[in-house]
Amino acid sequence: MKSQNRSDAIQTLRDAGFTVSVDYIRNDPTLQADTVILQSPAAGTALEAGDCITLTVARAVPDPFRQVPSLLGMSVAEARRRLAIVELLPTLTPSNLTEGTITAQDPLPGTLLHRNAHVRLVAK
Question: What is the pairing mode between strands 65-67 and 102-106?
C-alpha cells in the first residue's frame, strides 16, 4: 500500500476483507499529502480476513502540532514506535512495563498536541 493514495489503499484492503485503521503524521515536503507512507503489519505478512491493517498517512497538520495516533490494542513496543514517528512521548502505566498491550490512552486519537508532548498509556 506504500505510496498509494489513502482512499485507494483503504478500499483495496477492505475489498480484500481486512479492517483498516489510519494514523496520520505531519506532512513532509518530500511526501505527497494523503499518501500511505507505512503499513503495519508489513506487506507479505500472513493475515486472515477481518484482521486489521494500520496505514500511516502523510497529512498536512499545522506545525508545531502532532496528531495523536490510535494505539489501543498495540504492543508497548509498537505504541512507542508510532509515537516516535509523530514526535510524541509515551508515559506508561505501570511505568516499568516493557511488554504488554495498550488498553487505554489519553488524549484520544486525533487530538493535536505540541511536538514532544506526552501521551499517557495504560498497558497490561
Answer: unpaired
